[in-house]
Amino acid sequence: PPGPEPVRTLLDQRIAELTMHTWDIRSVLDDEYHFSADAVRALIDGVDRAVRRAFRPDPSLVKPLCHRFVVSGPAATSRVIIIAAHGATVGPAGGQEPDVTFQCDGETYVLVMYGRVKVVDALADGRLTFDGDPAVAVGFGRRFVGG
């Protein structure tokens, strides 16, 4: 961490790390392995931190790009990731019109945001769908290095 962090934050980070490493191992051994609904909820809470680390500054971006994620299932939420020349921010979806809207379940959202599943692969196998500009949707995957 860049400075002092509350113990709760450090604990959440450690739990997320262990949960993701469990997925790394179990998903190779068992094609049917999935996170529990509780694990997905806990991991979604840590996505904001992961996203801030996952995008590198891109000075070529002339205007910020707004990506909305509509997450379904027990951990349903709607989040906006704005990518700008200086990096990325994430927050609750508001009234801003997105350049692209992605739809997926909570597990797919977590796996994409933590860099375990590539955007292009999730799109190809139908776990992630989108409405909006295809170039922006594909560009999200190219700019994203995973949390």
What does this protein structure show overall?
The chain is of the alpha+beta class and 147 residues long. The protein is built from five helices and five strands; from the N terminus they run ααββββααβα. The chain has a five-stranded mixed β-sheet with strand order 3-2-1-4-5. The model has no long low-confidence stretch (mean pLDDT 88). The longest helix is centred in the N-terminal third of the chain and has 23 residues. It is 44% helix and 22% strand. The chain has a single domain, classed as 2-Layer Sandwich (Nonspecific Lipid-transfer Protein, Chain A), CATH 3.30.1050.10.
Keywords:
single chain, 147 residues, alpha+beta, Nonspecific Lipid-transfer Protein, Chain A, 5-stranded mixed beta sheet, 5 helices, 5 strands, 22% strand, globular
Major sheet size, sense and barrel closure: 5 strands, mixed
**H and E order:** HHEEEEHHEH
Order of strands across the main sheet: 3-2-1-4-5
Number of domains: 1
Radius of gyration computed on alpha carbons: 15 Å
Examine the secondary-structure arrangement and name the CATH architecture. Answer: 2-Layer Sandwich
Distance between the termini: 14 Å
Secondary structural class? alpha+beta
Given the structure, what is the number of helices?
5
Contiguous runs where pLDDT drops below 50 for at least 5 residues: none
CATH class: Alpha Beta
Shape descriptor: globular
- Beta-strand segment tally: 5
CATH superfamily: SCP2 sterol-binding domain
Query: What's the helical proportion of residues?
Result: 40-55%
CATH structural fold name: Nonspecific Lipid-transfer Protein, Chain A
The share of residues in extended strands comes to 15-25%
Provide mean pLDDT, rounded: 88
